[in-house]
Amino acid sequence: MPRTCAIIGGGIAGLAAGIAMRKAGFAVTVYERAPAIVPMGAALSIWGNAMAGLDGLGCGDAVRARAAQIRKVSLGRKDGRMLMGPMDVSTSDSFLPTRALLQQILLDHLGPENVRLDAAVADANLHDGKAAVELEDGTIASADILIAADGIHSRIGKVLSGIEPQFAGYVGALGLCNTPQQPLPSGFAREFWGDDDRFGVFDAGQGMRYWFYMRSAGRAADVAEMTLPKITECAAQWPDPVASTLAAAQECIPVAIHAKPPPKVLGNGRIICIGDAAHPMQPNQGQGACQSIEDAWALAVLAQRLPPEQILPALEHQRLKRVRSYVRESALMGQAAHMPNRFVRAAVLGSFALTPRWAQERQLLSRLVVPVYH
């Protein structure tokens, strides 16, 4: 009989992990609590390191064929002055698919028959040398490996870390808009930083733009103020393409940013956490989804050659240091962008402006080095 794998969560991490474990010869069941696979969010930066992971899972070319490539990255001020770039990242093989597109590609490669919908997991534990999953309807299933891929509020992730997600000090909104008469330059990606807020605008291909807005906040409940009329009014004071992008926006998705410290472990025995269930990171480097994909890629490699009880130790050996660094760096970037002390913040922005472009490009591309899992 084939080895079995149960996966909690049918988002990007869960679907990618399902593909990975099937490639390793496991019979896979993904348990998704929602009655349908409905994409949340707008678009995702899939940098070259994660594109290599998608290639390993057999999905890379499908993304390249349908998503916009990221070519030029830059950081500017609210007054239009440039702080960094534009940096040429066209050789990094990086793309900006919508979340809906990436999720559909992963689901097609996994096979919808391997996803059980409307299946909320009530508990999970180790029993008789295997992982056991108990659904809220009372059903109990066992598996050789259990993978928790159910996001930052994962129950298993909380048990492993002993830490609740904490509000990171800023709220925001994101969305997609259609501007066919005013397309952005191909591969355009730019952030603009104000005093305590920032906008980002990206070319999403075919006249579409992906945008986000973030601002400092004293509490997570302030996310209620992230309405499209208020953000559009704010955007009118910013340089193009911010103003024109928000003028074309029809809807937005409000978000309150939460975070956890870098993880110390990625699981326990045959229970493994991946993605935001293991290492949630603030959205400041575009690596959240990328590291979920890398988790799955590493699992695909390790599960092909190791017995189930040896997969977690090998995964932690090859992944833990890397994901911890991304969690730390994304938190530091969030602190720099939303630092309450304006003098310190001005010094940080000044350091960006003084760094030569070649050094900026080298630093950015160094973060996108494709790892080798074995």
TrEMBL record:
Any one GO MF annotation of this record: FAD binding
Domain of life according to the entry: Bacteria
Domain FAD-binding span(s) in chain numbering: 6-329
Keywords of the record: Monooxygenase, Oxidoreductase
Pfam families membership: FAD_binding_3
Keyword Metal-binding in record: no
PANTHER family, A to Z: MONOOXYGENASE, PUTATIVE (AFU_ORTHOLOGUE AFUA_6G14510)-RELATED
Record's protein name: NAD(P)-binding protein
Species the sequence originates in: Pontixanthobacter aquaemixtae
